[in-house]
Design goal:
The protein contains three helices and four strands. It has 78 residues and is of the alpha+beta class. A four-stranded antiparallel sheet has the order 1-4-2-3, with no helix packed on it.
Length: 78
């Protein structure tokens, strides 16, 4: 599993973020405090507090995560 923090604080960012994730055949979870939602679910994402960074858990082997991280680069907090 790979873990990164993402910033998706606008409606446009949420839509484009989900469009990137659905291209990959693995599971993604967004974690904020004790809440966990499917990162491919727009409704789930909008139930979270988007004003602060959110942890993204990518359930994939580390060698496969390179392509995913490259696609998610605009959203990742460095």
């Amino acid at each position: 599993m790979t873990v990164v923090n993402v910033n998706i604080n606008t409606i446009e960012k949420v839509k484009s973020f989900v469009n990137v994730l659905v291209k990959f055949d693995c599971d993604f979870d967004l974690v904020s405090g004790r809440y966990v939602v499917d990162a491919k679910s727009i409704m789930g994402i909008f139930s979270m507090d988007l004003a602060k960074p959110i942890q993204l858990n990518i359930h994939v082997d580390n060698e496969d995560a390179t392509e995913i991280l490259a696609a998610l680069d605009p959203y990742i907090i460095k």
